[in-house]
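Incident log, support desk, overnight shift.

02:14 A customer reports that sequence design results differ from what the structure should imply. Their input is reproduced verbatim below. On-call engineer (initials T.W.) acknowledged and began investigating.
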């Protein structure tokens, strides 16, 4: 079993975004995931001038934005130093939960069922979009930040795919995923649609079973992660070797 490294560090927390971190530093095969290449965050629409300077100092020059069209319209951003690539995965969590209210007031079991459905659909409906993550990672070695709205589900799955593809062990992969519990600042929304605090904590949080559901779906549909990587993510041996060379050392 590999030993998880300390919480990935950065020079200073961002003022206008949370859940920001370097996803490097984890053991991967005979080396480690390179630091300073791939970062993850929640949305970048509220960065302060200091935040912008910090990202520039890190050399971050591009973003992979998994938000849906309405999310990007509601919270747009444009920075001179950053080229943004829209890799759209439309959110379904709240509509699915609202649909379930016909069965009664949403409770914890309903919320977890919706979250598991979302992670299942990352594999069954959105693999082509997540394959584009690797197109982008292989197209340039400029430091990149991946994000969605909260930086926990769509972003968490994308980062987990990267980690798994370069040989990060399952416990370290899960460690990074669960860091959201420490680093994400839940927004203070005036309208929570009558949802209980228990349900909101599930919807705004991460649990091991959510990510495990995605990988179980991969195994059930493709037989193994390697087959999924090859056929769904388009990572043949040549491209996977190139990924290892660029992002591990």
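02:41 Re-run completed on a clean worker. Output:
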């Amino acid at each position: 079993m590999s030993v998880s490294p300390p919480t990935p560090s950065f020079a200073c927390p961002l003022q206008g975004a949370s859940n920001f971190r370097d996803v490097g530093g984890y053991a991967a095969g005979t080396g480690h995931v390179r630091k300073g290449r791939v970062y993850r965050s929640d949305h970048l629409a509220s960065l302060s001038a200091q935040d912008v300077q910090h990202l520039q100092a890190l050399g971050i020059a591009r973003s992979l934005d998994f938000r849906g069209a309405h999310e990007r319209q509601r919270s747009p951003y444009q920075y001179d130093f950053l080229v943004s690539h829209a890799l759209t995965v439309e959110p379904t969590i709240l509509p699915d939960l609202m649909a379930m209210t016909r069965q009664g007031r949403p409770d914890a079991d309903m919320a977890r069922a919706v979250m598991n459905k979302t992670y299942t659909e990352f594999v069954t409906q959105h693999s082509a979009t997540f394959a584009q993550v690797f197109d982008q990672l292989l197209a340039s070695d400029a430091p990149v930040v991946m994000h969605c709205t909260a930086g926990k589900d769509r972003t968490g799955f994308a980062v987990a795919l990267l980690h798994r593809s370069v040989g990060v062990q399952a416990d370290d992969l899960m460690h990074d995923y669960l860091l959201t519990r420490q680093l994400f600042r839940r927004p203070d929304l005036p309208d929570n649609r009558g949802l209980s605090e228990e349900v909101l904590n599930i919807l705004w949080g991460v649990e091991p079973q959510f990510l495990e559901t995605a990988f179980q779906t991969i195994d059930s549909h493709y037989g193994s992660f390697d087959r999924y990587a090859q056929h769904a993510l388009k990572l043949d041996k040549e491209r996977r070797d190139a990924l290892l060379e660029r992002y591990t050392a």
